[in-house]
Every structure is written in structure tokens, then in C-alpha cells.
Design brief:
Shape: globular
CATH architecture of the largest domain: 3-Layer(aba) Sandwich
Pfam family, one: NBD_C
Number of strands: 18
Strand content: 15-25%
CATH superfamily of the largest domain: Putative sugar-binding, N-terminal domain
Largest sheet: 15 strands, mixed
Organism: Marinitenerispora sediminis
Oligomer: single chain
GO molecular function: ATP binding; kinase activity
CATH class of the largest domain: Alpha Beta
CATH topology of the largest domain: Rossmann fold
Protein name: 4-hydroxythreonine-4-phosphate dehydrogenase
Family: Belongs to the four-carbon acid sugar kinase family.
Strand order of the largest sheet: 9-10-5-11-4-1-3-2-16-17-18-15-12-14-13
């Protein structure tokens, strides 16, 4: 049933920008007297195996004033157009979390081909070590021989590394259910997961010792390929590792791997640039319809969909079994119906929670949902997507080739500006994207995000 809609328009800039609309976002809306950071856009390459991880790792760099572009095709970057002004981090989502080892190896190598030879490379890994970690680190070491500093701890999320073992809230990884949906058993220790790669452990005692000793442990024998596996229990431990591996005034480590905690520690080494947020209280606005696509089956995601409907969004509920069974023709008919509803105003599309499907069908269901919303996405000004699998399937289908990260609105909720690919029809891609991990936030996280982008203090 239709209720009163949110009608305030999505904030947009009136000033014409030649090729990328996000240029003002990099500098911030207010002028700053801080000096620009002297870095080439290809100086730092971050490679992630899923979109949620890519965005999580980008946010700390964006918060330091760097432009952060997440590319959705490891073999098709950089995109046409001038580079972003100021310092930048290039992020590539290889989408290989569920791929086989051969595909993961090829995707990492393809990502490296777009980077400068002297670039520092950070491989984002899952904090519970899911995915093709061994194959991807092996590709890095083969392409760029030398020591690779691995620190997979993410203390803020309860992930720590002690004696070369990964812990989740104090329990050894192999004694948790973190790998319940994985085809293999979780590793008892990290060196075993990485075998036969050469691994040297850097224990907590060394991490917390004199910084000169830690620096020597991380930077000796720069031409010998190996993994330096670092223990860490706290953010201070990660800061020590990042500072020591950075090398001070001398050459630092060129290869890094870790979870979002390490990315944040590396970002904290950078001098702060222009703040990403600005005051959106004034200025012209233009209308933009919002489309929310709720691909997560979590209870929180269901509550967020209900809150959007209560705020005036038209709710469209899809049967997951129909999405799984639909052929191309049936999916096209469904997509036209969804697009017709979305054309009338703000819309939230969700999966019928009463029709459960097994976790082994999640990726297939995400692809079906992406097909059902493809037409609707291209006409929206603001798109909200919950669930990393859903976002990864839906955005390329709508012509999005990259995301220019603007800011983290709430933990796990990231606002970006979309960039279309080379072959995308002009104007086909949505303008702004809000992505959110399915289980993050409270019932009103998405409604707050919409209102923030439309008429609150916003980074747009």
C-alpha cells in the first residue's frame, strides 16, 4: 500500500564538471589550508576479493583526504578521464572470494598489471581467512618477489592473531563456525593454510619490542620472497607493524596483506588531507528517485526494508524461488514490472523472507535479483544495496564500472559516486550508491542514509 513518500530531492552540484562529478568531493566542500599530499594515483594499489572488503579498506584512506576509487573489473582500469586531484588510492575488487585458485591467481596478476612498477601493493584478505588466500599471496610474490608483510588481525571486529593462529572473539578460528558455509575446514594455523609458501613468524614479543628490532625483522633480505606473518591483538600492534614496515626515511615494505585493520593502520601513517565531508545545507538540488535493493536475509536487513516502506517507499517483494528458476525471458518480464514501479517514485525491493533458500544458492539468487532490478537501477538517482553479493551482481548490470568512495555514513555503510564503464550507455548508471553489509546497523540505518544524502549534512 502506498503511503506518504519522501519527496525532498537528492542533492546535486549545479556546476558542470567535465568528466568526473566527484572532483569537489576529493577536496571537500570547504576550502582548506592543508598542503596536498604529494602522491601519484598509482603509488598505492589495494586488491580485495570482495566488494564489501574493498569498500571497508578504502574508507580509512578516504577519511585521510585521499581519493579512493574501487574498480569492479581487475583487467579494465584505470577508467578514461583525468586522474583525481591530490593523493589517491586505487582499489580493485577481483570478486574472487568464491572463485577457484586458478581464477584468483589470474585476477590478482591482472590487477597488478595496471599498477606502477614501484607501487606499494596491499592485498586485502578476509579476517577469518576465507577465500583463495594462498593462491593470491603466491601470485603477489611471483609477480613482485620480496618479503610480504601479512597481518590479518582486525581487533575492532574481535579478530586477533597470536602464535600464528587466528582467533575470533578469543576462540581459535578452527573451533568457530566462521567457515560453516565454506567447502573446506578452517585452518588450525595460518602457516598451514599458506603452505608451501615460505612463512616466517613475527611474534607479539617482536611486534612490541624496540621499533628498530621490528623494522629489521620486516625489512631484512628485501629480495627474498617470503611471508612475514605478524601477530597482533590490538590496533596499537597493527600501528607498530605499519610504522615499522613503512621504513621511516628509508625504503619500506612494498607488499602488504591484511584485513581492514591493517588498511586503517597504514592510512593512519598518512598526513591528513582535506576532510571528505561538507555542509550541504545550501546550494541547488535536483530530484533523484531512490531505489533500495535488500539482498541480505538477515533480520536487521528485513527491519531496514520495513522502515523504508514506513517512510514512504513502495515495497516490492520477490519470491526467491521464482528468481532462481526464471529463464532470461521471464527475468526480462519481471525486470520491466520492477522498473515500472520504481519509475513512479522511491522503491524498496526485497526477497520474501518466508521463502528460504539454502546458502549454497546465495550467489545464484544474487544474480537473479540483479537481473530483476537492472532496468530500475539505471533510472535511479540514489541506489541503496544491502549484501555484498547483491551489490557485486547488481552494479555491473547497471553499467557501474567503479565507485568513487565519498564517505562512511555509519559503520559498514558507505556512500559512493558511480562511474560508468567504457561501454555503458550515457546516463545509464545510477548517480550515487550506498552499500551496506547485510547485518550492520539498526532498523533505521537506511532511512537515515537517505535523509542524510538528501537534506542533512552530507559529503555530497
Amino acid at each position: 500500500m502506498l503511503v506518504t513518500r519522501i519527496t525532498l530531492p537528492l542533492l546535486r552540484e549545479t556546476r558542470k564538471v567535465d568528466s568526473v562529478l566527484f572532483v569537489r568531493s576529493v577536496r571537500g566542500v570547504r576550502p582548506t589550508n592543508r598542503s596536498p599530499m604529494p602522491a601519484d594515483p598509482t603509488d598505492l594499489l589495494l586488491v580485495a576479493d570482495d566488494l564489501t572488503g574493498a569498500l571497508d579498506a578504502s574508507v580509512p584512506f578516504r577519511a585521510r583526504g585521499m581519493a579512493a576509487t574501487v574498480h569492479l573489473d581487475s583487467g579494465a582500469y584505470p577508467l578514461p578521464g583525468p586522474p583525481s586531484p591530490g593523493a589517491a588510492v586505487t582499489v580493485v575488487d577481483t570478486d574472487t572470494r568464491h572463485a577457484d585458485a586458478v581464477a584468483a591467481d589470474a585476477a590478482v596478476r591482472a590487477a597488478l598489471r595496471g599498477a606502477a612498477p614501484a607501487a606499494t601493493v596491499v592485498k586485502k584478505v578476509d579476517s577469518t581467512l576465507r577465500g583463495q588466500v594462498r593462491a593470491e599471496l603466491a601470485a603477489l610474490l611471483d609477480e613482485r618477489p620480496g618479503p610480504l608483510v601479512l597481518a590479518p588481525a582486525f581487533p575492532r571486529a574481535g579478530r586477533t592473531t597470536v602464535d600464528g593462529v587466528q582467533y575470533v572473539h578469543g576462540r581459535a578460528l578452527h573451533r568457530t563456525d566462521a567457515w560453516a558455509n565454506e567447502p573446506a575446514a578452517p585452518p588450525a594455523d595460518i602457516a598451514g593454510l599458506l603452505a608451501p609458501l615460505p612463512v616466517e613468524r613475527v611474534p607479539l614479543g617482536t611486534v612490541r619490542a624496540d621499533p628498530r628490532l621490528l623494522r629489521a625483522a620486516l625489512l631484512r633480505d628485501p629480495g627474498r620472497p617470503r611471508v612475514l606473518l605478524c601477530d597482533a591483538e590490538t590496533e596499537d600492534d597493527l600501528d607498530r607493524i605499519a610504522a615499522a614496515g613503512h621504513g621511516g626515511d628509508g625504503p619500506g615494505a612494498a607488499l602488504w596483506a591484511g584485513a581492514a585493520g591493517l588498511a586503517a593502520a597504514l592510512a593512519r601513517l598518512l598526513p591528513p588531507g582535506a576532510p571528505p565531508a561538507g555542509d550541504a545545507a545550501g546550494g541547488a538540488r535536483e530530484p533523484g528517485r531512490a531505489l533500495a535493493v535488500i539482498g541480505s536475509a538477515s533480520a536487521v536487513a528485513r527491519e531496514q526494508a520495513d522502515a523504508l516502506a514506513a517512510a514512504g517507499f513502495t515495497a516490492v517483494t520477490l519470491d526467491p524461488h521464482e528468481l532462481l528458476d526464471a529463464d532470461a525471458a521471464a527475468l526480462e518480464v519481471l525486470a520491466a514490472k520492477v522498473a515500472g514501479t520504481a519509475a513512479a517514485g522511491d522503491t524498496v525491493v526485497r526477497i520474501d523472507a518466508g521463502r528460504r533458500v539454502g546458502p549454497h544458492l546465495a550467489r545464484r539468487l544474487s544474480r537473479g535479483l540483479a537481473g530483476a532490478v537492472r532496468e530500475a537501477l539505471s533510472g535511479a538517482g540514489l541506489v541503496l544495496v544491502t549484501g555484498g553479493e547483491t551489490a557485486r551482481a547488481a552494479l555491473p548490470a547497471a553499467g557501474v564500472a567503479a565507485l568513487e568512495v565519498i564517505a562512511e555514513l555509519e559503520p559498514g555503510t558507505v556512500l559512493s559516486e558511480a562511474r560508468a564503464g567504457r561501454r555503458a550507455p550515457h546516463g545509464a548508471a545510477p548517480r550515487h550508491i550506498i552499500t551496506k553489509a547485510g547485518g550492520f546497523g539498526d532498523a533505521h540505518s537506511l532511512t537515515r542514509a537517505v535523509r542524510l544524502c538528501r537534506y542533512g549534512r552530507t559529503p555530497l
